[in-house]
Amino acid sequence: MNSAGAGLSLVRPVPSRPTPLSVRVGHASERGKRERNEDFVGAVTPVGQDLADKGIVLAVADGVSGGAGGREAAEHAVRTVLADYYATPSTWTIPHALDRVLTALNSWQVAHSAANRELAGMATTLTILVLRGTRWYAAHVGDTRIYRSSGGECVRLTTDHVWDRPDMRHVLKRAVGLDHHLVVDYSEGELQAGDIFLLCSDGVWEPIGNTHVAQTLMTCDDPRSAAADLVEAALRKGGLDNATALVVSVDTLPAQQWSDALGAAVDLKPPPRLKPGQRIDGFEVLGLVHESRATLLYRVRSPSGQDLALKTLQPALADDSRSCEALLIEEWLSKRLLAKCFPQVVPLSSTQRSYLYYAMTFHRGMTLQQQLDRDRHFSIAEAVQIGIDIAKGLGVLHRLQILHRDIKPANLLRGDDGVLRILDMGVALAAGVPYPELEGNPGTPSFMAQELFNGKPASAQSDLYAAGVTLYHLLTRKYPYGEIEPFQRPRFGESVRPTRYRPDVPRWLENLLARAVARDVEQRFETAEELLLALERGDTQATSSPPHTPLLQRDPARAWQSIALILLIINLLLLYCLLIP
Predict the structure, then answer these.
(1) Beta strands 39-44 and 56-63, pairing class
(2) Three-class DSSP category at 400
(3) Do the beta carbons of residue 254 and residue 23 sit within 8 Å?
(4) Quick one: which of 35, 32, 27, 24 has its CA closest to 206?
């Protein structure tokens, strides 16, 4: 392959196509001897990216009979879950996404029931199963059930939320719309090819019992026939209630690696080092913008004439699967940051790329670190505005359950358009995404919170700590606890007030920074929105300074050493007085 000259001779690899999760679904529902069917069942089996990101969702609800609106409650619950779940950010964990949807659903049903006298008591059970990748997830409230047949064994995955008395075994303790506070059971586990799940109402499981359910599932060849057989058996054995069964058979599983969700791009390798004038997949290389130990960032021009940034790995890391997967995860996360405070990723399929890289919008400007290196001094007003912009950006990240983990001036670009953008999601962490972790916590030592050096995981508060240190550094060119070198084991004493270096820092901002960089996580701002509000209010509603932490609480070992030294000196003085008349 020729990597020199004005163009690259590219050989496009034939990507392998990962096998997706595939299932067969069947359902049956009969009103039985009731006047109407108050059960409702639904399923969504998406394809493509939605299948990889969100998975397959199945749900069964049983409206509370005896109260008005039981059928309406059940149908609304299932339809809402199936629609709203797929509207949640793909960076959220499945339990978190379901919990947010169910909390909103419950609030709506309670309010709707209270506002409409004819729907008073509108409530429903709800049981949800999500199949994604190689795992299953369940959310459950009420007495509808989930059964799983796997490896010759049939197990019930849910617990009935009914009163434990014979005369009240049909009275629900929990249901959607029953109370303002909804408590949902969540569970999860590994999927196996050949697994069969049953979601059913009490009109099915109560008349036929667990043994009949197990026999049907373990001999199931066709989910539709199995669902129909279960419902028919329940009615035949004298069942009086609505009977609903939803059966799903897991036929094939995707490869177990999470990276398969990223598509065929996992087979690509980084390009050789690029030079101005060369072309790669139609992009003209204009120059190298930034280089780190692991990555290269080029400025390129697209076939349409748009200037873009192209990020790839150092060629030496072509066979480093961890680094390659990390770059793909970085692209996956960055695609989901649809806000002006982040560069926007240009959508490219794996078939459009011959090499491992991703492209994003290019913005002219300078990082805050570049401005500091050019001896730029920031006014109080400028620093406060930068803090507001950082807090807004972190708010976007944290609402998506993403931690940046490397907020610092070098990763904050002030564009020529005046917009502050957060750069470099290379070590960002999202819930549920198995980042190829480096040893210890990644990040820049001087901007890392004390708990990270003690092996604690990163959190929203550690991101906010880094934002506080960034503002402190912009104002003073110093660090609140001193500069920390790589591999150094720092000791965090009391932070130095910024007014020691910058007397014009107002008291409210000094207190705000002291709280932002507090050693104790509990004393810091809890959310980015709280920090944003404090910066926007300024001195109109000033932040109080965190309390001074005694040495005994801050560093017990050092405190006891000091006490021991003082006692030793006192004993030596007493001994001296006794020996010298």
Answers:
(1) antiparallel
(2) coil
(3) no
(4) 32
3-class secondary structure per residue, 529-552: HHHHHHHHHHHHHCCCCCCCCCHH
Give the amino acid at 167: D
Q: Which contiguous run of DSSP H or E holds residue 10? A: none
CATH of domain 22-256: 3.60.40.10
pTM score of the predicted model: 0.77
- Select from 339, 354, 383 the least CA-distant residue to 506: 383
How large is the angle between the packed helices 507-516 and 380-399, nearest 10 degrees? 30
Q: Which amino acid is at 1?
A: M
Count of C-beta atoms within a 10 Å radius of residue 502: 18
Cβ atoms within 10 Å, residue 1: 8
Strand order of the β-sheet with 365-367 is 365-367, 412-415, 420-422
Q: Are 20 and 264 in contact (CB under 8 A)?
A: no
Q: Does domain 259-361 have CATH number 3.30.200.20?
A: yes
* Average pLDDT per consecutive 10 residues, the chain (581 residues; last block may be shorter): 40 56 94 88 91 93 77 93 93 92 94 74 91 93 95 93 75 89 93 95 94 93 95 91 95 69 71 95 95 95 95 94 89 91 88 90 96 96 97 96 95 96 92 61 89 91 97 97 84 89 95 94 95 92 60 57 77 75 62
> Does residue 493 contact residue 481 with C-beta atoms inside 8 Å?
yes
3-state SS class at 131 = strand
Q: How far apart are CA 443 and CA 539, in angstroms?
A: 32
For domain 365-549, the question of CATH label 1.10.510.10 is answered with: yes
